[in-house]
Amino acid sequence: MLKSVLKHYWFTGAATVAVVASAAYFVAVGEPDSGKTVKNPKSKPKNKLSGLINEGNTCFINATLQALASCPIFFNWIDSVLTRKTSDITEHYLRTTCSLNMTMAVINNQHPTIDVHTFNSRQLIQSLEKHGWNLKSEEQDAHEFFNMLSTTIDEEINKNNKISKGISIDEQATTSVCQPNSSSPFRGYLASQLCCLSCGHKSVRYDAFECLSIPLPKLDVRNAFTMLNVEGLLKQFLAAETVGEVQCDSCSLKNGKSVFLKQLSLGKLPQCLCLHIQRCDWTNAGQLTKRQDLVRFSEELNVGNFVYTNRLSGNFKPVTYRLRAVVEHLGMADSGHFVTFRRNIVDGRTRWFYTSDTFTRTATFDEVLKSSPYMLFYERCT
Ligand SMILES: [Zn+2]
């Protein structure tokens, strides 16, 4: 699927599309020679992934891109969004989406023409800067970058007002961009249910998320070495809590403000689940520190206990996600390095890889399990 679409964009599409896409390709690889396979002196073996060049403190970008490229549901979605675009005008406001698509294809060894050991994400960075993001500041964060990229892709795909001035969009093209099924597979909804403890009145609100940012439990020196796990952190994050002084529509006239029970649940499940573990903390002296807590995880994650409809019905049927990638932060809060453990399919078989900027190698799953997760990427399998 991916290859066929890329071929469409590079070779067989309408002439205008091919010209625009080829231009993007030159910028990315710096080679003024279209139509030929771009190779390093020795073509990389097919069981290798491409690494990503560090453009100066960009390991947070590289680690996130490797993680995203390990999620087939996500890159197939990007691919299908671009497939729907048949007019060259869409290129102008889909430049980040196009750059991301190309980068993922290259690092996954799936690009029809670019076959390199290392690749740079300069074109993607430039496209984000054109959207107003500042990526040249000090050390940045993989979670922030994920949010920045998600927001931009969403804007490009769903918002007409991001179209460059002077480019007219015909009705048909605009309609295809705005299809309601264009939301990212990382898009889920948290259901926030409030129940008045005085009268039992219930209300529920849904808030969209692309990534669940999960806090660690309050640091307790007595339990400093307690082993945490992802299911436990989710349970704590999605546990019921009481909130006071809330006006109840049903009984406020009688009792004034009421105490409510607030329960967060997974209201709408995403196809791809991104979890961010909040490791940054502030000391009493106001200094930023990094929590080094061990957080265990497994290959499969069952979130059935946290699903809103399951909780309502009392039928906790399993909902399983399979691990695709782990982004790890090495070092301290204000410095350090991001690396990624990720899956890729080689000759029809899933294998794990370790990636650190340009360096990539195969990894055992034991190594993956021993890593210290900062972000976890899952895809739904049931
Ligand atoms: Zn009430």
Automatic annotation (TrEMBL):
<dbReference type="InterPro" id="IPR018200">
    <property type="entry name" value="USP_CS"/>
</dbReference>
<protein>
    <recommendedName>
        <fullName>Ubiquitin carboxyl-terminal hydrolase</fullName>
        <ecNumber>3.4.19.12</ecNumber>
    </recommendedName>
</protein>
<dbReference type="InterPro" id="IPR001394">
    <property type="entry name" value="Peptidase_C19_UCH"/>
</dbReference>
<dbReference type="InterPro" id="IPR038765">
    <property type="entry name" value="Papain-like_cys_pep_sf"/>
</dbReference>
<dbReference type="GO" id="GO:0006508">
    <property type="term" value="P:proteolysis"/>
</dbReference>
<keyword id="KW-0645">Protease</keyword>
<dbReference type="Pfam" id="PF00443">
    <property type="entry name" value="UCH"/>
</dbReference>
<keyword id="KW-0378">Hydrolase</keyword>
<dbReference type="GO" id="GO:0005634">
    <property type="term" value="C:nucleus"/>
</dbReference>
<dbReference type="GO" id="GO:0005829">
    <property type="term" value="C:cytosol"/>
</dbReference>
<comment type="similarity">
    <text>Belongs to the peptidase C19 family.</text>
</comment>
<dbReference type="InterPro" id="IPR050164">
    <property type="entry name" value="Peptidase_C19"/>
</dbReference>
<dbReference type="GO" id="GO:0004843">
    <property type="term" value="F:cysteine-type deubiquitinase activity"/>
</dbReference>
<keyword id="KW-0833">Ubl conjugation pathway</keyword>
<dbReference type="GO" id="GO:0016579">
    <property type="term" value="P:protein deubiquitination"/>
</dbReference>
<keyword id="KW-0788">Thiol protease</keyword>
<dbReference type="InterPro" id="IPR028889">
    <property type="entry name" value="USP"/>
</dbReference>
